[in-house]
């Protein structure tokens, strides 16, 4: 007993662990459960800003076909999903102009505005800048639900619909697809910058004749707004679809991620490069092309798109979208 009293306290505690288990519990007692690791918070998406504020900037706004997720290919390298906004900087001389990809995946023209993304982008825009906008992929669907609530009203009119948004829990006035484009155009012009509208990318889907399916509604509505507002129009839907038709089915398949279920909307890195070249080909049809002085050497060799691509097909009469 005298020996035990003379031993240091830390030695006695250590001995207790050996005699009774790691935590001083009797031998054979169940070990306490390991603490559950807290779920790792999703990294915050950091949106780019102009690298050199002294240069003019080309801002890109749109959805995941322009900037996919965190713009990292989901860590799958070239085989992942990439938007054309990731590859188009290589087609500009970045010593003369910034290319700032502010597109956000999953958004429509409506939710890019209501989510505050346009307000934050607009704060960066200055006189002499350029804004290329591409929406439409996510503008159809449900106007009001508790999942996405992102659809705009079809068409380009001034009609609107009042809703109590089930997702945001806020009252909202929903406008037409064309109204949102006109809003972006007007705000861009008010900053002394140049707006350019771009129709949505085509999906990897073929019709009965073996041609890539076009989206005549949103392509035509985009063209109609461009004509109304007298701004540049890139009919990317038709330019890219014609490119896909020329490449053929097997080659087009290699421009999209090889996935199950089949990925028909988002391109891989090679596909994003093709789309970026299509955007430049469309820019070269503009008269004048305001971005021509900023092209890089690789872009100089890209031929202008066929002028017939400017004639988007007539859109069907808009049908009222579902309210919920």
Fold and architecture overview:
The protein is built from eleven helices and seven strands. By secondary structure, the protein is α/β, with parallel strands linked by helices. The protein has a single domain, classed as SGNH hydrolase (Rossmann fold, 3-Layer(aba) Sandwich), CATH 3.40.50. The strands form two sheets. Strands 2-1-3-6-7 form a five-stranded parallel beta sheet, with helices on both faces. A two-stranded antiparallel sheet has the order 4-5. Helix 8 crosses helix 10. The longest helix is centred in the C-terminal third of the chain and has 15 residues. The protein is globular, with a radius of gyration of 27 Å. It starts with a helix and ends in a 24-residue tail after the last helix. The N terminus and C terminus are likely disordered.
Walk me through the topology:
Layout: H1 2-6, H2 9-20, E1 57-62, H3 84-87, E2 98-101, H4 109-114, H5 117-122, E3 130-134, E4 160-164, E5 171-175, H6 177-190, E6 194-198, H7 216-229, E7 232-234, H8 236-247, H9 249-253, H10 269-283, H11 297-300
Parallel strand pairs: 1-2, 1-3, 3-6, 6-7
Antiparallel strand pairs: 4-5
